[in-house]
Amino acid sequence: MIGKTISHYKILEKLGGGAMGVVYKAKDVKLKRNVALKFLPSEWSDDSESKEHFIKEAQAASALDHINISIIYEVDETRDGQIFMALAFYEGETLKKKVQRGLLKLEEALDITIQAARGLDKAHEMGIVHRDIKPANLMITKDGVVKIVDFGLAKLALQEKQTQAGNIMGTIAYMSPEQVRGEEVDCRTDIWSLNVVLYQMITGKLPFQGAYEQAMVYSILNEEPAPIRNLPAQGSSRLNKILSKALAKDLQSRYQKVAEFLGDLRKLKGELESTKERASEVKPLPSIAVLPFANLSADKEQDYFCDGMAEEIINALTHVEGLRVAARTSAFSFRGKSIDIREIGKKLDVETLLEGSVKKAGNRVRITTQLVNVGDGYHIWSEKYDREMQDVFAIQDEISLAIVDKMKVSLLGKDKEKLLKRHTQALDAYSLYLKGRYFWNKRTEGSLRKAIQYFEQAIEKDPGYALAYSGLADSHIMLAEYSLVQPKDAFPKAKAAVMKALEIDKSLAEAHTSLAFVKTLSDWDWLGAEKEFTQAIEFNPGYPTARQWYAEYLTMTGRYSEAIAELKRAQELDPLSLTVGVALGVTLFCGTRQYDRVIEECQKVLEMDPNFGGALNLLGMAYRERGMHKEAMEEFQKARAFDEGNTWITAGLGHAYALGGKKNEAKKVLEELERLSKRKYVPSDNIALVCLGLGKKDLMFEYLEKACEDRCVGMSWLKADPIFDSLRSDPRFKSLLKRIGLEE
């Protein structure tokens, strides 16, 4: 069709298609304007009933004249009898595409809903029910105007029945109970569907869910949607009341007219705007970054103690409600750099900084701290502690309480309890734990193995030390995630450690996070993993690792909007984290397939660290998906130079070689990985990627089967990773997804 001229319309490109038509962008050569041409599918060209329905669609739409309803210009027929409709062409995007990029703010979601409701109100006045309101049928122009499109399922309500029993038309997820039952429908069905869309815009989830069609129908008929809780109390309460009424299963309990629904929406929007105006006058939450403490001791190996002191204060302060605390990764990124405190404050978006130094000599320790106002550089508070080492816990408490006091934060009883909570009274166990965390943060194979030794020694000194068990679990998890050891060896050890941590302290957010990741990467217990992630975030909302790992879980399971929302929150807590930045890029890579945006996110990370292998690897993957094989090879080669032992990167390079026409180089990579696997652990799914690039499909599935048996961590990404798109229709691939629990 592209390039053909139909009547006085020149076809330019295909825009999309659905059950009732295929749509093209075209040029009206008479009036010199772009239009959208909708054609009845060619296989239906001889079907008189379909033609009649299509014409009625045109009649219904042409009778409507409203800013929020798409304009129809004419209906015509090609020489070979194919009917088409000429519609206004709008520059913009569908709400479906917009929602795929992330959650919408409440104010924006309300504005879109109000505009759509105004259009529906006009249609209902004319006796027309849309019957297929969903994000794909709501167009948002570049000027922000909502246009309802595709009245393909509309019927003239005054002329014929809305539906025939047993004949379901539309998209199940957005259907009302009466619609899925095949009963007569009216304007209240459109109200229901629009509120399903509103719920999805704000939460990223559908209010009624099911793994297959009948399960979703059951949910629509029998279940109630979970209340929305991620909003300010006032907005959340009123919005949930509106949704409850709009999604009432009993027709008489639902809004009877759009005008009534519109009134409640406008009232809520007005209240939010009024609250926002008042909030703009309210001072933002106090915020702080704790910089790494300087080591003034003669023994330079005391760096672990200095870092540990600062990190313990950070962890304590995150439990104080009403105080925003920059995460360790971001705060420690300024170590050893001579940067003005105002620049540090700007990059971390905080108003105060805590600086400190530690000098240890024998059993005595001198700790000096100062709280500095970023805006003017003046000291808010400073103190020097010259004590015995056994007083180190009391010093930490005094520093934390002083910060809270000087920053004018009200400390509730539960906050004070969490702030001053001690996980061990044994100083030697505490010192060993700090060494463990110091080496864990370095994230190399050698440092992780050292971390395990120190955590185990800390546990020997204090068997009731929950944080040490949690650190031990994290170390085993990282060894498995970095493919340094067999997952079957690492994850049982991690799980045993984390269960012991939770046995000691059920409220430990770090332990719930670790258990959730084990359930995700090893157990493939998707429901159990989400329960643990939500528990972790509930116990410590300021723990960025919980948010990042939860976002990775959401990406693996295809819930991309929710994943992006969690990563945005993680970035607020940890703005300079390289891993969070890459995680956001991965979610965009898997969820939106907007590879230019992925490339932008990678470049942001590489501006902070040009040698960060994770960003270079993802950049290579994005170039690969764009068909830029030369650029992909270059990025994989750079990543490999900085992280030579990473077989994921090696496999990515081999795959890129194959796609880029360098078959011999790809075969050499395959041989290299196969040789390497005979003397050390190489994940089988790594080797499978090179086989995929070389077109060795049967061999690739053999390796994927082995990866499944070995519980390779990469298998958790099977549903989300675009590299597997060409395999999704293969029964062997579907079988793997079922074994992993990612498909019914």
Structure description:
With about 750 residues, this protein is α+β, with helices and mostly antiparallel strands. It has 30 helices and 17 strands. Among the domains are: about 5-90, Phosphorylase Kinase, domain 1 (2-Layer Sandwich), CATH 3.30.200; about 90-280, Transferase(Phosphotransferase) domain 1 (Transferase(Phosphotransferase), domain 1); about 285-420, Rossmann fold (3-Layer(aba) Sandwich); about 440-540, Serine Threonine Protein Phosphatase 5, Tetratricopeptide repeat (Alpha Horseshoe). About 55% of the residues lie in helices and about 10% in strands. Strands 1-2-3-4-6-5 form a six-stranded antiparallel beta sheet, covered by helices on one side. Strands 12, 13, 14, 15, 16 and 17 form a six-stranded mixed beta sheet that branches. It has a three-stranded antiparallel beta sheet with strand order 7-9-10. Helix 15 runs antiparallel to helix 16 (about 465-480), helix 16 packs antiparallel against helix 17 (about 485-505) and helix 24 runs antiparallel to helix 25 (about 630-640). The longest helix is centred in the middle third of the chain and has 22 residues, at about 260-280. The two termini are about 40 Å apart.
Distance between the first and last residues' Cα: 38 Å
What is the radius of gyration?
30 Å
Low-confidence regions: 155-168
Helix content: 40-55%
What is the CATH architecture descriptor of the domain at 92-279? Orthogonal Bundle
CATH topology grouping of the domain at 92-279: Transferase(Phosphotransferase), domain 1
Strand content: 5-15%
Mean pLDDT: 87
Strand tally: 17
The structural class is: alpha+beta
- Based on CA inertia axes, which overall geometry fits? globular
- Supply the number of helical segments: 30
CATH class placement of the domain at 92-279: Mainly Alpha
CATH superfamily name of the domain at 92-279? Transferase(Phosphotransferase) domain 1
- Biggest pleated-sheet summary: 6 strands, antiparallel
Q: Strands of the biggest beta sheet: in what spatial order?
A: 1-2-3-4-6-5
